[in-house]
Write a structure and sequence with these properties.
33% helix; HAD family hydrolase; HAD-like_sf; alpha/beta; five-stranded parallel β-sheet; four-stranded antiparallel β-sheet; TPP-like; hydrolase activity; 271 residues; 9 helices; 26% strand
């Protein structure tokens, strides 16, 4: 039988920063947490210990593929439990890692498509530098020479600015997504779904599962056979749904645990 392919977003879907844990229960009932990412000698991202065990078990019944907007460097500092993934998608589909190494042919195909289908990164970056107010911008970043993002102070960020940026970017073939303290500007042709379809083709799988929480995950969820979104994030805030997508009530790190549980349950079911 061909393997089940599980393509899952990471941040705020499977792994959570301390600010995103949403531990609303009494302290004595809070779940035990496992740190899965350290950055600059400090713990950064977590999942519950139960989710960690479920993810380890998932490796026995499915091909788990992290599918993230993170750069390769940011992804490689994550230490997930279970078998090392054969495939991983980074930079929102710009890099397809095979045994930890970027597939050069895939990356070339992506960059050729971007050159032909949307405005160049330099134009978008110039607009961000010119219009974003230093009062609330903490960092300007370019990721893998593919897209740009800002790190901002959310409490100071004017709500209308993000909407205006989104409308401006739409006309250039770009998408804007606000996730936590980051505002992403990503070319529309740069998608997780295209890379997922490529891995599904290579592995011959007949069942693809997926999960994600943000606007950048919508195309991923539309490409899978069954998907889940947590009760938080851009998709939940807008009430986004689609056929085959389950909207979970859980928020924060417990949503991550529920998502892995659903992956495992479906991957173990007779097909």
């Amino acid at each position: 039988m061909t393997p089940v392919l599980v393509a899952s977003d990471l941040d705020r879907t499977l792994i959570y920063s301390s600010a995103a844990l949403a531990l609303t229960m009494p302290d004595a009932r809070a779940p035990r947490l496992l740190c899965v990412e350290v950055h600059e000698s400090r713990p950064l991202s977590y999942m519950t210990e139960t989710a960690a065990q479920l993810l380890t078990d998932l490796g026995d019944t499915a091909l788990f593929m992290p599918t993230t907007t993170r750069t390769r460097k940011q992804y490689l500092r994550i230490n997930l439990p279970g078998p090392a993934p054969k495939y991983a998608i980074c930079a929102n589909g710009g890099h397809l890692l095979v045994d930890g190494v970027s597939d050069a042919d895939w990356h070339r195909r992506v960059t050729e498509r971007l050159a032909g289908e949307c405005a160049p990164l330099a134009e978008v970056r110039e607009h961000l530098l010119r219009t974003a107010d230093p009062v609330w911008v903490r960092k300007h970043r370019v990721a893998e020479d593919l897209f740009a993002y800002l790190v901002v102070e959310r409490e100071l960020l004017p709500e209308d600015w993000v909407k205006e940026l989104g409308a401006w970017a739409e006309n250039l073939g770009w998408t804007v997504s606000l996730q936590g303290r980051k505002i992403y500007a990503v070319p529309k042709p740069l998608t997780k779904s295209a890379a997922v379809r490529e891995v599904a083709r290579r592995t011959g799988t007949d069942l693809v599962l997926g999960a994600g929480d943000s606007l950048l995950d919508a195309d991923l969820l539309l490409a899978v056979d069954r998907g889940w979104r947590p009760g938080h994030g851009e998709l939940a805030d807008t009430g986004w749904t689609a056929p085959g997508i389950s909207a979970l009530p859980e928020r924060g790190v417990l949503a991550g645990e529920r998502i892995v549980r659903e992956f495992l349950k479906v991957s173990r079911a007779p097909r």
